[in-house]
Every structure is written in C-alpha cells, then in structure tokens.
Amino acid sequence: MKTFKLISLDVLEKQGDELQNRPVDLTDGLIINREDEQNHWLVEAYMDDSYKNYFQQMQDENREYVLQVKISKESNEPATMMVKLVGLNQIGSSMNVLFLGTLLNRKQEKVEEMLQALILEGYQGTELLEKFKEKSKLFDISSSSK
C-alpha cells in the first residue's frame, strides 16, 4: 500500500444539468492506494464537525459519489474518484470521514474532448488523425501505458 497526504477534497454535486464543486475545509487527511485487485483507494478526511449533518446524509443515502482530490501538493492536478462513504467518526470537536473508491480515467476524458472539438472544427478522416496527433503532442496525452 502507498499513502499520500490529502491536500484538498471537493464533493461534486449535481445541480440541474451541471456538476458543482462543494469544497470541504480539511484539517488533515490521507489517501491510501490499497493496491488490491479492484484498484481501490481509501480516503480519510479529517475536518471540523460542522460537516456532520452533510456527511451523515451522504452515509444514509448509501450511494456512490464523485470526489475531486488533490494529493501531496496544492499545485497537483485534482484526481477524480467514484467513492462510497464507508465511515463517519466523531473525534472530539472534529470528525473524520472515510471513503472507498476508484480513480476515474481523466486522460480518456481529455482525449474524447479533444476529438470532439476537432470534429466540430470540421476535421475528418486522415486530416482528423493528423491534427489529433499534432495536438496530442502539445498536450502530452497520446502516450498511454499498456
């Protein structure tokens, strides 16, 4: 298992047709790569207990949520996760919230967005392929580990 410092945590909430970020003011936190067969990550977020009702409702709903987390340092890109709330603990005037879930593939989303934009610009066939390769090099998204 590998453990990292949790720098920030946002819960993505659906509001109409859009997703809104709800930032959580963390006191501290960890994110652990469990390195199991399901590629699970455990997120432990430590915060003021003013969030208790919000996270209690999440726990009662017992469904999956989307989080955006920053790991190790503020300048890192946020990672998107699909999680379930698996624990809620009162610790004095603070609390911790435990989530278990998996990372979502943001690289695939970026590839799809770029292709969609190129198609909307009118590129087709080999011209589309060449333009995609050109832009992929600029954004370093074409290299993927196999």
Low-confidence stretches: 141-146
Radius of gyration: 19 Å
Share of helix, binned: 25-40%
N-to-C order of helices and strands: EEEEHEEEHH
- Give the biggest beta sheet: 6 strands, antiparallel, barrel
Mean pLDDT equals 85
Query: Structural class from helices and strands?
Result: alpha+beta
Distance between the termini: 22 Å
Percent of sequence in beta strands: over 45%
Shape: elongated
Give the strand line-up of the largest sheet.
1-3-4-7-6-5
Descriptive overview:
The protein starts with a strand and ends in a 7-residue tail after the last helix. The protein has 146 residues and is an alpha+beta fold. 13% of the residues are buried. The longest helix has 15 residues, at 106-120. The protein has three helices and seven strands; from the N terminus they run E-E-E-E-H-E-E-E-H-H. The protein folds into two domains: 2-103, no CATH class; 106-139, no CATH class. Helix 2 packs across helix 3 (125-139).
Descriptive keywords:
alpha+beta, 47% strand, disordered C terminus, 2 domains, 7 strands, 146 residues, 6-stranded antiparallel beta barrel
Give a brief outline of the structure:
The chain has 146 residues and is α+β, with helices and mostly antiparallel strands. The chain has helices at 52-61, 106-120, 125-139, and strands at 2-15, 18-24, 26-33, 41-48, 64-71, 79-91, 94-103.
